[in-house]
Each structure stands twice: as structure tokens, then as C-alpha cells.
Amino acid sequence: MTTSVVFHTYKTNVNSHKSSFRAGRFPEFIRNGLISFFFPAVCPICKGELPPEGPPWICAACRADLAKPMDGELDDYRRDCDKFPLVTFYTRFDYDEGAGEVIRQIKYRERRALLGIIAPSVAELAGVLAERYNLDMLLPVPLHRRKERERGFNQSALIAESVAAESGISCQVRAMGRAKYTKQQTRLKGDRRLANVSGAFVVRDAAAVTGRRILLLDDVITTGATAAHCVYALWAAGAEMVVVLGVAGADR
Ligand SMILES: [Zn+2]
Q: What is the reported pTM?
């Protein structure tokens, strides 16, 4: 009995608290001022302090780190995905080394200004791959239309367009599509990821990919399942060669 009374009081408090902080009650600048006073902006990668909230959102040291030129051999950027031995994968960054955070910020917080930080580094590898494999076209892994509507954009397409602008390789954003709505891959494990994406991709414009040598761009490569099924669809549609380039490779 006592418990329920306490609970009821608590609920009432929560609600009245909420209504007194209704959106629009405080002018935007006061709200933002309060937020940055209590939660000073920190670099999401190194947790170092940042100037008040706003672009570029990542500290100069972390930006410089992501802009470092490639070192070593091209093979150092190759990634083997055991389940897809026929597919050639490369990744530019390790997910845990800051690039993962940049991708998350672009994807879930719509911080598109961050594209400018990773695109030149990805474009550098894209250029080397284009030369090595004689590739002439960039293609992003498509997002299902429903998901693209929900999110408002396809992060891989945005990255591909930036990379195309940097590298000079032409980009075809709409040549492929997704036939079925798949669950968010990060919530699924191993074989379930595989089942989730098999048959998920369709080539909408076969003429655009037939006989072409394609660099397929994905944001994050984990098991490789998503990109590999894209590659299979492209092969089936007559693409001469497909090489996968992931912005970041993640182990999970
Ligand atoms: Zn930092």
C-alpha cells in the first residue's frame, strides 16, 4: 500500500517536472548555454575538451590522426572475411581508432560536416585500389528506401559521393537498391546477419553495372555479409569485377 502511494507521488512529480520544462519555454540560446555549462563539449574520440558545441565536433589532434596518409603496403589494408573468401575487402580505418566514432556521429547525429574529415583518407585508398584493379566506378551499399526515409539519408552514399569528389572516380548512387527491409545488422549476431541480408539487394540499373569494374563502398565492415551480398548481386547483373572498400573494419 505504502509503496503504491510513494510510486504515485513519484509519477506525479515526474510529470509536473516534465511540463515545467516544456520545449519552447526557454529561448534556444539559454537552453544551449545551460547544456554546455553542465555538459561541456568533449571530443567524442579522445574525450578532450572542445570549443562550445558546433562543427567540427572533433578535436584538432583526432582530426589530424584521421587525415594521416596511408603507410605500408596496400595489403596492410586488406581484410579477410572468412565466410566470403571469393570477395576482396579492404578497409581504411579500424573501427575502434576514432573512425568508428566519426561514422556513428554522421549516422546517428547527422553531423555531415564530419564527412570532410574522413573522405580524403578514404579517397586516397580508393584511388590506389582503382589503379591496382583498374576500377572505374564507385557504388555505395544501398539503404532500404524505408530506412533512408526514416534517417533522411544513406551514410554510405554520402561518403561515396565525397570520395568520388575527392578521387575523381564516377559514382552511381542509385544503380542498386534493397529488395527487403532488413533489421539493423548491429543488433544481430553471426549467421543471423547472413540470413538477414541474403537476397536483400537488387540491381535496379543493370546497364549501368554490366561489364563495369566497381569499387563498392560500405561504412563499416564486420562479418562482410552485407557487402558480400551486394557483390553477389552485382556479379549476377554482369559486373566484371567488384572490390569492397569499407571506411572502417570492426571486430565483433
Ligand atoms: Zn580528440
A: 0.78
